[in-house]
Amino acid sequence: MLADDMACNARNEYPAQVFNNENHKLNLYGDNVEVDYRGYEVTVENFLRVLTGRHENAVPRSKRLLSDEGSHILLYMTGHGGDEFLKFQDAEELQSHDLADAVKQMKEKRRFKELMIMVDTCQAATLFNQLQSPGVLAIGSSLKGENSYSHHLDSDIGVSVVDRFTYYTLAFFERLNIYDNASLNSLFRSYDPKLLMSTAYYRTDLYQPHLVEVPVTNFFGSVMETIHTNSAYKAFSSKTSNSKINSEMPLNQLSEDDELQKANIPNDELKTEKQKCPYTQMRVDLQEKLEKLENVDTVVNLSIAVMFIVVMVSSSLL
Amino acid sequence: ASAVASSNSGEPMEGTSGSLNPTTDTSGIMPEFDPKTMRSSKPGLKRLFITTSVLFSFLLGVPFLWKSVEIYRSPLPFHDIDSLSDQIESTPLRFPCNFHAVFVGFRSTDADNLRSQIQDGINQLTHLSPQCGSCSFSLSVTIQNPAEQCSETLGHNPSSCSYRCGMIKSNDFGVGLDDTVDESLNDVFSGCSANSRKMYSVVVVNKENANGEDEVKAVVGKRRHAWIVGSGLEERNDDMVSRVSEIFVKMFMNGGRDEDSIHGEFMPVGSDGRIVLSFSLLNSNPRDWVYDWDFQRIDDALLAPVTKALAPIANISVESQVLYHTPKSSFSSWDEQLQSYIFRTSDLPFFVNSNEWHLDTSAGASGRSKILQFVVYIPSGSECPLLLQLPNGEISKTNGFISPMWGGVIVWNPGNCDKDSESPIRNTISPQDIEQIVEIFLGQFRQLFGFKSEAIYTSVLGTYKILPSERGFTEWELDVLSRKHTCFNLHSCSTTLSSLSKLVRSLPRMIIKDEIGEQVKYSLKAAKLAQSNASLGGYSSSASSSREARSLAENAFFHPSIMSVSYFSYEHCFAVYSPFFLPVVAHVVLAALREWKRYRQEKAKYLTWLTRKKTA
Asked: What is the pLDDT of residues B149-160, one digit of tens each?
């Protein structure tokens, strides 16, 4: 969800490009970036709808949170905020009790197993004050009464490009490689209040596992739980006949589904029903006759000529 | 005097009563006339009437105001929802099953003893604690001696079909394919499960020392029967009893798994009762080679039976696509010994490249269906052949893995890894390879539903061979699935409805549309139907009713109008209307009260004057 007013802003020197560092090495709008909600769709209501799953029927799957009871969700929010609220689009506010209520409903409906909320705003820690649901881990970039600051200014573009908390989080991940088993504890310990100019506060009272044992890949990196398939299910190897694809489909013998089998003889039944109605029978016959005609065009032309003659005759008689 | 009095009462007074004009009064006659405590004229009612009529009109308008701010809430059956959830929590759902054990070639005639032994064995394995979806069984035992005479004991609820003595011959066993034995046993037992109670049978055959073999072979068939063949079984009675109990409990009741219940992680049915199987053939580097498949024939010949077999549990639809330029995101290394590229199980969590693999692009699946992705990955020329190495050093036989609730990946290496230096040829995967791939897919599909992908079960007592069915699941496995899914769906339905009722009660000013009320009503009805079908033993009908109950409950809960942020509390309503009405109401009420007080004072003054006049 991005308000997305920067990339194509008239004042952006690099149109359609957004960088997170003044060295311009990484274009955040590069390949394979998927933004699901942008512009006017970013509202508190849509945000809460995504969390709780209450969409209209027509909303496509890419705009839904398709999680289930084994999912780990990372929720990262940044922008302007204050005491128990976060600002949306300069017009609305997300209150901490609304967020807590949405998370409570998600937990009741088993939409997540573990949820990590990361907030980078002023007074960020107040946003998750009201959370009560188990399985939630939350970290904010500053305490109540503190501001969060941006990291550096890009003099080329004229705005600050990244906030301190986010910058140091990304720096932590840049130092890891795919096989490192870094824990969340090492991530949280890497924040230095002097560098951040605010206190990064996290709350673990609702999260049971110890942070030292939880790998960062639980939430970051789109990593899946996998189980090896030990063997194939040799359903076709026992057949001594030809390969199944080339042979005929055998009849299925389900002992309790006799009704289904009756429904699989469609054509005869439908035909008998149609014969009961003379009008449809007539139309069917007519259609069959027409289909048998080889040269439909001459028939049509002839009939047009006949019609013309009939009209002339009748109008001359009148 | 009356004219004066009326003009006096017609003037608007500021609350200072008693400031009557004493000079116009004819009080000169009474020397003790005190204007502060007496008045000579009766006080009028007009002032009181005006103020109280204003107050009264306000009060008359209150019901109209109340009606205009009332919100429509369709009445939900809270009591029924609570009773359903209590019922489901307290009494776990149990399905009736019939167990029948037939001992062929045994000389003893004590069927009752055998029966109680087997019953003890089963009770030991089920720990006497009923789980939702388990069987409440009735056991019957038949012993057929070599002379083809039978002695039998029947259980509490015997099935309508009974075993005709002599139908099973010990010569049928041990020769020929297991499939033919399965078919012949089916002829014996086929009539028995057509009614409501499903019958599961185990046949123990004691052969008279055939070829001097001493081994015991145990096979579980594709329908609802199993058999154990061996020689010298009568001596090993306890062993046989344990194996028979194990087959009844571990196979027929629990589906070949060790735990009793299936976790939510292995219930991949979407909340609208549908599953979409999305097959993708990934050519990771089409510059090396391009492969295609004839998916229509795969679907018609190999997948249709599976889809049909699972119809009571989920409405399954199938779609497929072929993708190009889809590299994987993990790494592999060259192994000189195996002459191939190796990737390990530690790489599996990173294998799926969600950036480049555009898998979830189904336009047909609605928001609440579950999509299971099945990916056949064809490695590029620089990584061919690509093999999966397990932690113990072995090479995987399937080269595939699953991720629960997501789907499965199979890595398929083209037969010939030499690239043609010219432009790549388009190949189609041969039917034999397709069959192998579909066999691995069926194994993965079973894993996603919580079953094992291999067709063998090993326990301390021995191994059991399970005959694989081309429908992906044997009939007794389908029964287990129906029972477990009915349980899960009913449980999910009741928790959803309780959450909904709690939510609705906590937001008293939220509009509840009629649609939601209807869905709740039908969901409760379907849940009751599922429970009654389950107690009668209709597995597939209870599975589909429970699926409907769950889907309706989810539709009601996830109705887009239930958003707490759109509705306001009573305090908000009060805060909106009070600036309009409070100031005016305060003045009107105060004025009426003041006028009433003044009227009483004036009346008292008049009365004292009257008494004075009388006494004087």
From this structure: 788 887 776 666
Does the pLDDT at position B255 exceed 90?
Answer: no
Q: B261 falls in which pLDDT band (50, 70, 90)?
A: low
B410 forms beta bridges with B376, B400
Rounded mean pLDDT, A154-174: 92
Whole-number Cα distances in Å, B182 to B171, B176, B451: 14, 11, 22
Catalytic residues of A: 80, 122
Size of interface A-B (CB pairs under 8 A): 185
- Residue B73 is predicted with a pLDDT of 87
CB contact burial A232-251 (16+ within 10 A = b; e otherwise): bbbbbeeeeeeebbeeeeee
Main-chain phi, psi angles of A39, to 5 degrees:
65, -130
Task: Inform me whether the C-beta atom of residue A232 falls under 8 Å from chain B C-beta atoms.
Answer: yes
Q: Which residue of B has its CA nearest to A229?
A: B401
Closest Cα in chain B, distance from residue A227 (Å)? 5
DSSP assignment letter at B192 = G
Q: Structural domain boundaries of chain B?
A: 45-68+571-615, 95-260, 274-449
Mean predicted confidence (pLDDT) in A20-28: 88
B444 and chain A: CB distance < 8 Å anywhere?
Answer: yes
User: Per-residue pLDDT tens for B404-461?
Assistant: 999 999 999 988 887 665 666 788 999 999 999 999 999 999 999 989 888 888 888 8
Alpha helices in A134-257 (DSSP H): 164-174, 184-189, 193-196
Provide the pLDDT confidence category of residue A288 given band limits of 50, 70 and 90.
Answer: confident
Distance (Å) from the alpha carbon of B262 to chain A's nearest alpha carbon: 14
ipTM for this model: 0.80
CB contact, 8 Å: B146 with chain A? no
Considering the four listed CATH numbers 1.20.58, 3.80.10, 2.40.50, 3.40.390, the one that applies to the domain covering B274-449 is 3.40.390
In terms of CA atoms, which chain A residue is nearest residue B195?
Answer: A256
Give contacts of A260 with chain B, Cβ < 8 Å.
311
Put simply, the answer to whether B302 touches A245 (Cβ < 8 Å) is: yes
- List alpha helices for B507-538, DSSP H: 514-536
Global pTM reads: 0.80
Question: Do A245 and B435 lie within an 8 Å CB cutoff?
Answer: yes
Residue of A227, A235, A246 with shortest CB distance to B470: A235
